[in-house]
Amino acid sequence: MTFQPGADLSEDEVQERVDDAIESNDVVLFMKGNRLMPQCGYSQRAVNLISQYVEEFETIDVLPALDQFRGALEAHSGWETIPQTYVDGEFVGGSDILAELDERGELEATLQG
């Protein structure tokens, strides 16, 4: 399912998309923009950190329904900030957490599940 900018997405549709993405992907990054064109520095940083260790990972652009995505993600993680990374269905964190894990030499193992 691909979201088009300006699409009218209900909270239920976004919640279903979030649930499905977290359950069906080993690594998923909810971000502003996409892997090829991140739309904020934090999202770019998260993509760069994950890309060091994982070739294949899903990215979900939250911009078409930002408020709905914030609510749906907060239900999973307790955080409403973007980006958010999930590995094997578990919330890992945003770009700052990924950077901390990388500095401690733990990011690769975390991303491998």
Stretches with pLDDT under 50, minimum 5 residues:
none
Give the topology string: H per helix, E per strand: HEHEHEEHH
Overall outline: globular
The CATH homologous superfamily corresponds to Glutaredoxin
Number of beta strands: 4
* Helix coverage percent: 40-55%
How does the major sheet shape up? 4 strands, mixed
Distance between the termini: 25 Å
Strand proportion, as a percent range, falls in 15-25%
Identify the strand order in the major beta sheet. Answer: 2-1-3-4
CATH class: Alpha Beta
Radius of gyration: 13 Å
Helix/strand-derived class? alpha+beta
In DSSP terms, counting alpha (H) and pi (I) runs of 4 or more, how many helices? Answer: 5
Question: How would you explain this protein's 3D organization?
Answer:
- The protein is of the alpha+beta class.
- The chain has a single domain, classed as Glutaredoxin, CATH 3.40.30.
- Helix content is 46%, strand content 15%.
- The mean pLDDT is 93.
In short:
The chain has 113 residues and is an alpha+beta fold. 46% of the residues lie in helices and 15% in strands. It has five helices and four strands, in the order H-E-H-E-H-E-E-H-H.
